[in-house]
């Protein structure tokens, strides 16, 4: 596989600094070497730069860094569209606001190919606020509502040319949802697997159900992994920790199953804040998870676990 690493040092979608260093931390933790050891061809395309900023205002006074995030969305939409023409793009965040750009670009590509785009959202949060409903004003809480074409972004964020069908979005790991998000997401067909769903059914059943749908639809599959999907005890380097997250084995199992499915066509790792890390342990864990996604396994497995 030809892996293309694309740094997206976005941090203006959060309330604090540090995610800008995320792409460097993935590199320092040995991502390129880990992928090469698996036999992949790796091109590090460096970091994307934001488009020129425009002055923007909005009636919600809480919104933070609107002009900066719109500039990132424009640049990342283009980068995702361009780099998904061939190879396997791996976007290195950067906070989750970057997904407003990447997913829109990937979705334009999918539309052109005549195939539906599916998104697996591994996160503690639904990130389903609009510009009107967010109380924190942190725009990393808005990308899913945006790329699925919900109302509440018109005239401020760029127009979504190829909205992702909400029915094609599957979330796993959810355990922090604001009241407005809960109301809004309930009106859609987004699949929300909260931690209770994992406890009751296990990640295997939840993921297989979704993968079967992707396969039946001949879809493209983008995986968006937020560091806070993981339990804070194993992944402290994130600004929005929520207790009770995915375990080490659950996270690796998901990555291994995704690999075996052969359905994933693009990936992003977001919200890594190296300033909050402990001697790089979260960065190393994230690199190991990406390695599992890209084929690392303890033993050879002759049979595929997903059919
Ligand atoms: N719902 C909260 C907010 O809107 C938290 C969002 C966290 N998002 C994230 N990508 N970590 O402020
Ligand atoms: Mn998120
Ligand atoms: Mn999150």
UniProtKB/TrEMBL annotation:
GO molecular function, a single term: arginase activity
Catalytic activity, reaction form: L-arginine + H2O = urea + L-ornithine
One Gene Ontology cellular component annotation held by this UniProt entry: cytoplasm
Pfam families: Arginase
Cofactor(s) the protein needs: Mn(2+)
Keywords per UniProt: Arginine metabolism, Hydrolase, Manganese, Metal-binding
CDD domains linked to this entry: Arginase
Enzyme Commission code(s) on record: 3.5.3.1
Protein's name according to its UniProt entry: Arginase
Originating organism: Pseudochrobactrum asaccharolyticum
């Amino acid at each position: 596989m030809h892996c293309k690493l694309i740094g997206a040092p976005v941090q203006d979608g959060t309330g604090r600094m540090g995610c800008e260093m995320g792409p460097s931390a993935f590199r320092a933790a040995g991502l390129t070497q880990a992928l090469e050891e698996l036999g992949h061809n790796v091109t590090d395309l460096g970091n994307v730069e934001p488009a020129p900023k425009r002055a923007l205002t909005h009636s919600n006074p809480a919104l933070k860094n609107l002009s900066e995030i719109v500039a990132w969305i424009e640049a990342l939409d283009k980068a995702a569209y361009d780099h998904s023409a061939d190879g396997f793009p791996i976007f290195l965040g950067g906070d989750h606001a970057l997904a407003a750009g990447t997913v829109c670009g990937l979705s334009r590509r999918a539309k052109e190919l005549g195939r539906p785009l599916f998104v697996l959202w591994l996160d503690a949060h639904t990130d389903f606020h609009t510009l009107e409903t967010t109380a924190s004003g942190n725009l990393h809480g808005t990308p899913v509502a945006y790329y699925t074409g919900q109302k509440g972004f018109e005239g401020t964020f760029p127009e979504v040319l190829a909205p992702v069908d909400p029915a094609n979005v599957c979330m796993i790991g959810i355990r922090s949802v604001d009241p407005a998000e809960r109301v809004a997401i309930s009106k859609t067909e987004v699949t929300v697997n909260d931690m209770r769903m994992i406890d009751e059914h296990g990640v295997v059943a939840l993921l297989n159900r979704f993968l079967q749908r992707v396969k039946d639809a001949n879809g493209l599959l983008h995986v968006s992994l937020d560091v806070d999907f993981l339990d804070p005890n194993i992944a402290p380097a994130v600004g929005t920790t929520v207790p009770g997250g995915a375990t080490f084995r659950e996270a690796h199992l998901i990555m291994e199953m995704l690999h075996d499915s052969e359905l994933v066509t693009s990936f992003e790792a977001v919200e890594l804040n190296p300033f909050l890390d402990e001697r790089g342990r979260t960065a190393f864990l994230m690199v190991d998870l990406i390695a599992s996604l890209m084929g690392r396994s303890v033993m050879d497995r002759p049979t595929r676990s997903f059919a």
